Amino acid sequence: MTNGWTDIANADVVLAMGGNPAENHPVGFRFVMEARRNRNAKLVAVDPRFNRTAAVADAFVQIRAGTDIAFIGGLIHYALSRNRFHEEYVRLFTNATFLVKEGYAFDAGKGVFSGWDDERKAYTDTSSWNYELDERGFARVDPTMQHPRSVFQVMKAFYARYTPEMVASICGCAAADFEKAAELITSTHTPDRAGTIMYALGWTHHSHSVQLIHAAGMLQLLLGNIGRPGGGLNALRGHANIQGGTDCGMAYHNLPGYIPVPKADHPTLDAFLAAVTPKPLRPASTNFWANTDRFTVSQLKAYYGARATKANGFGYDLHPRLPQAESGGYENWSWAYIFDRMYRGDMEGLFSFGMNPVSNGPHSRKVVDALSKLKWLVVAENFDQETASFWRDDIQALVDKTPADVATEVFLLPAANFAEKDGAFVNSARWIQWKWKAVDPPGQALADQEIVARIFLAVRGLYEREGGTFADPVLALDWWYENPVHPTMAEVAREINGRALEDVRDPAGNLILRAGQQLARLTDARADGTTAVGNWLYTGMYTEAGNLTERRSTADPSGLGRYSEWSFSWPANRRILYNRCSADREGRPWDPARAGIAWNGSRWVGDVPDYGAESPPDAGVGAFIMLPEGAARLFVPGQFVDGPWSEHYEPAESPVPNPLHPPQSSNPAVRPFSTAYDVLGTADEYPIVCTTYRLTEHFHYWTKNNAYTMQLQPEFFVEIPEALAREKGIASGDRVRVTSARGSIEGKAMVTRRIKPMQVAGRTVHQIGFPIHWGFLGRGRQQGSLANLVTPTIVDPNSHAPEYKGFLVRLDRVGGA
Amino acid sequence: MSAGGRRLIRYDFRERLVHALAAVSYVYLLLTGLAFWTPALYWIAVVLGGGYLSRVLHPWAGLVFALVVLRMFLLWRRDMHTTNADRAWRKAMAHYVRNEDDRVPPAGRFNFGQKQLFWVMVWAALVLLLTGVVLWFPEAVPGSLAVVRELAVLLHAAAALVTIGAFIVHLYMGLFVVPGGLHAIVHGDVAESWARHHHPLWLESRRDAER
Amino acid sequence: MATPLDIVRISASTPPAPGVRTQHIVAKLVDTTTCIGCKACEVACQEWNDLPPEATEQSGTYQTLPDMTARFWNLIRFSEHESERGFHWLMRKDQCMHCTEPGCLVACPAPGAIVQYANGIVDFQQDQCIGCGYCMTGCPFNVPKFADDTRRVYKCTLCVDRVSEGLQPACVKACPTSCLQFGTKDDLLRVAEQRVAQLRANGYEDAAVYDPPGVGGTGVVSVLAFGSQPELYGLPRDPAVPASVRLWKGPLKWAGNAAMLGGLFLAAVHYVRFGRKRAHGEASASSAQGDRP
Questions:
Q1: B101: alpha, beta or left, given left = phi > 0 and alpha = psi -120 to 50?
Q2: How does strand A499-500 pair with strand B189-191?
């Protein structure tokens, strides 16, 4: 979230799209209700189904799964063509004024950007997706935004194709419904109004998911909603601590704090830093990533302690580096690629902590088959689950095998659950909130850190005694915890925050930290090895003042639900990111009733400002300090592999060719896997659009072990529109089978008016959907109903997230008519 | 026995047993029913083992009563048709009430009043049974048929009240007004003179049958 | 707002002695327009009241059960409705309405099995309950539910145990959107009216507070977007204690009592006036009149 849960209460318009917050974030949804009750805010829900959020929305538009970019593109066009955008804001805070490099083009007929190689069916030269630079290496700008190559003009031309009629044709909604929603959503373009977008996995689970969020970012920037109380682009995270996981290096390509992972062709620390540290693109730009050296060195010091010396690049030489791939680029170790490798026999073992890949998918059958090619599998879980039991006969039957065919040695380690251990959750609002153990774990269950510690110590012992390949990272690791088998969470939190290893002085030579003291500010980190910081992003959470994540003050002097003394919000306890955008050129809040920060003549007051509190508004320091431009990116230069603009591409499986450019229907940058499991269906054979989702009654595949939640939603079901059910002779409660090119799943039919047939590109298209929560193990009737038996292995080319949320199926009634 | 001469069997054992069962079950139903009817008499239920037990047993007693009434119906229905003699008796009922029995036309085995009691009890038992089943299993009535439950409580009470009226008359007559009545239903025999007095046509038919 | 449990009405009993303590009437507000059907209230109710999970089955709806049960006192009802404004998915929390004039209490024959506290809560005392189920008939909302095993009737207590300790009911505590609120009825009616005014201004001209006068108002008041069509939410339009129950507990009762007492009285009069019939052989009453003392 750029903003936070409590801030949603300040919105005038809430767009819930690509998420169903009433269903999946019911507690946070209270702030939507507060906005509605107290501000008479309007809620717009856009979804493939009339869902729980739609039930309380002021406007609902049903769209075909996987067409969100067309809808958002339509909103962008609506805003630009009707002058419903915040021009001054756009000029001040975005790259709309920047000039795009000559040579950039988009072929609207072919549906590809410049740099596309027709022969190799790939983007082979994306250098044109960039700014025009001046001789100093800074981007050229045209403050009037009239230059034909200004980002603004290019954008306007690009999205001119997204007319309401085109949106209706792609999304399968009525143009009038789109326009009604557009009117409401773009009503926030005035300085006195603010609107927020809440999205979740309905946006991130597509083959164009990153571009989809890019599109939403563009829309919010055009409307002047980023950085303002009541505005923002708010990702609703799907687990209590998924934000913390992401921040702390969960994705294979990042170290904690979003530091890029070292690559094979970065042999030294200096080479690495030279490759990953961006250069400023505007003269006054903060370019905060210029601090990459401090954060990297401090992190390496936290890893390797005294073993990190200047001589070995502060431990860089000990750190693993991502190998280059045979096919070019670097190896990809994201989820779907892990299981593809595993299926190909390239992996020996897997640690699966708090994960259930057989259920999570995509394509459960491929996962089951892949797991059986492992030598060993370690699962740490609260309950036995499908992955730990993938060898069972009923699960092996999915891939026409038996337990005898499985040689994998499986270890199921009982793990404590969230309430059985201390620690912290980082919520969607970036609040790092300490939590306390409520009860002891049952039986032999241990807290995760103890499981990890015991494995680590045993492995280190083996290396010490027997040696082995690539021992350095293990042997050099600084395992400094008082009880080595059970590091306390407070120790880990202090380590993540960072501490001074020697006295630390500021550039003027003043002592700011004594050796051993906890760091207080992000900028306290040093690149000379005198500080150790686990994750620079969290610096400030555990200072000499104590563990600030334990704070629970409800004091709110702002009256805007900022709660600055409740826990700690990264970065630097900033509650709203890019809050510089909440004020105009002179630093006066756009809306005095909803001030984010304000310049009082000598300093910024309000929230923790984006940059120096005493840096005056006219210094030209951009709000977006993490970008070398200092300005928000409408046009995204050279960051995404599938284009600098968000273009609507059909899901990999689509019932119609892309109405915008049939020759290039789906995302051209997508690289499908190539095993026998990785198949796609055609619209002839699988004519129905299908999507998957979660229910408020359940949490993933976990609560199927709980009798109360199972009572609320006892079994798998398929939601089917009435017209389709009539066509197929299906009644509510009948058993139906949903079949994709990859597999099938059976369950009860729920015939409903909450999904309506759609007119897509002049054809009637039906859409169905089902929730994910059941499987083989758990209470009640599980019936092997794994939703991911039917989902495709197609992944987004940028984030590598699977396309769970839009694919093709066939629907049949099971049993006699 | 008094010098009434020979004695006749008025109720055979089967009839007496059926009547006794009806009496016992009815009295239990009456007492527990009255306890449920008005808080002023709830103490009866307490005396009889508590409200809960009374609520449990009342329907079973009702079932017994209904079966007994059915048996009684099968036993006596042939004797219970209204005859010309009954119509004459009915016209002179005021005399019967005033104990001017010599002005009352002769009655058969059962006089018109007894027959009315019989039919009142049979029909009321039917209503009580049907409504009683509803009240027995109130949870089985779906909300959409709440009216069934609503009618049942009303009709059950109304039908019970009708039986209570009849029962008061019956008990009063049998115990207080007609000497020998109680003896007859308990022991089965009556004096010929009694029969001649109260049920002369029955006596005649007995004699005809004996001939 | 802890409220002592003075009793103001008690089933099948003479009215209790009036308390002198001033007590607020408490109420629960169910704003159906902000309910998201998350069912947190359902489980909170079960957990607070130590009620076991129910055996359920998917039958084509998001609703947990077709109806409340003896161990499931709080049910979110889901219904689909199409109006000129479009499609609507309505969700309403169903539970005991805690009527000001409770039909269950009127119908109950067991002294003390149903009581109404001075704070308005209507509560079943299962130890006094005889399991007759008359309360089910007396209730215009079809709320009390019979347990086959204990043969007693159960329903929402409005968490009287929590309320009397100054806590809010478990369901309200669990509600994430504040669609459920707890407080004094006066306060909540004001909140409800404000919300209705807002809904009307937003085009739901039919919005209304559901606080039916037929039962003297309810302790659970609802905000309905379609106020003139409470049936859409599974609520009766004009709920009242059923006419038959009123007839039964009113005129029929008095008439019946009069008839029974009158019958006994008449029998006594008859006995005094006419006495027993002469035994067989004796002269009939009419010819023996003169013999009477």
A1: alpha
A2: unpaired
Q: Is the pLDDT of residue C148 over 70?
A: yes
Among the listed residues A789, A716, A778, A695, the one whose alpha carbon sits nearest the alpha carbon of residue A388: A778
Strand partners, A381: A414
Handedness of CA A732, A734, A738, A744 (dihedral sign): positive
Give A69's pLDDT tier (boundaries 50, 70, 90).
very high
- Token pair in block for residue A305: 């302690």
pLDDT for res A461:
97
Regions of chain B where pLDDT drops below 50: 1-3
Note the pLDDT tens digit of each residue in A555-586.
999 999 999 999 999 999 999 999 999 999 99
Does the bond joining B142 to the residue before it have cis omega, within 30 degrees of 0? Answer: no
Q: What is the widest separation between alpha-carbon atoms in chain C? A: 94
Contact C60 A753 (CB under 8 A): no
Mean pLDDT of A365-388: 97
Task: State the pLDDT at residue B196.
Answer: 86
Interface test with B, best of C105, C244, C273 (most B CBs within 10 A): C244
A219 residue type, one letter: L
Contact by Cβ (8 Å): A203, A213? yes
* Closest to A294 (Cα-Cα) out of A523, A534, A540, A582: A523
Residue C289 confidence (pLDDT) above 90: no
Q: Are A498 and A548 in contact (CB under 8 A)?
A: no
Q: Does position A253 have pLDDT exceeding 60, yes or no?
A: yes
Asked if B38 is an interface residue toward chain C (Cβ–Cβ < 8 A), one would say yes
**Helix (H/G/I), strand (E/B), else coil: A497:** helix
Distance, CA of C172 to chain centre? 20
**Where does the pLDDT of residue C292 fall: very low under 50, low under 70, confident under 90, or very high at 90 and above?**
very low
Using alpha carbons only, give the angle A30, A33, A34 rounded to the nearest 5 degrees: 90
Cβ neighbours for C126, distance < 8 A, ≥ 6 positions apart: C113, C150, C152, C153, C154
Instruction: Look at A748 and C60 and tell me if their CB atoms are within 8 Å.
Output: yes
Do A598 and A606 touch, CB atoms closer than 8 A? yes
Model confidence over C164-180: pLDDT tens digits? Answer: 999 999 999 999 999 99
Q: Tell if the CB–CB gap between B54 and C130 is shorter than 8 Å.
A: yes
pLDDT, tens digit, 9 for 90 and up, residues B68-82: 999 999 999 998 999
- B101 touching C (Cβ < 8 Å): yes
- Residue C94 CA to residue C76 CA, distance in Å, equals 6
Mean pLDDT of chain A: 96
* DSSP secondary structure letters along C134-184: HHHHH-TT---EE-TTT--EE---TTHHHHTTTPPPHHHHH-SSS-EEEEE
Q: What is the mean pLDDT of residues C179-187?
A: 97
Residue A46 scores a pLDDT above 90: yes
Helix axes B146-172, C251-273, angle to 10 degrees: 10
Cα A286–Cα A288–Cα A293 angle in degrees, nearest 5: 135
Q: Are C20 and C171 in contact (CB under 8 A)?
A: no
CA distance C126 to A544: 59
A670 neighbors A652 (Cβ within 8 angstroms): yes
Chain B nearest C-alpha distance from C190 (Å): 32
- Picking from B141, B138, B85, the residue whose alpha carbon sits closest to that of residue B113 is B85
Q: Give me the interface pTM, i.e. the ipTM.
A: 0.93
Please report residues of C whose CB lies closer than 8 A to that of A52.
36-38, 89
Q: Per-residue pLDDT for A201 more than 50? A: yes
Q: Report angle CA B157, B163, B169 to the nearest 5 degrees.
A: 140
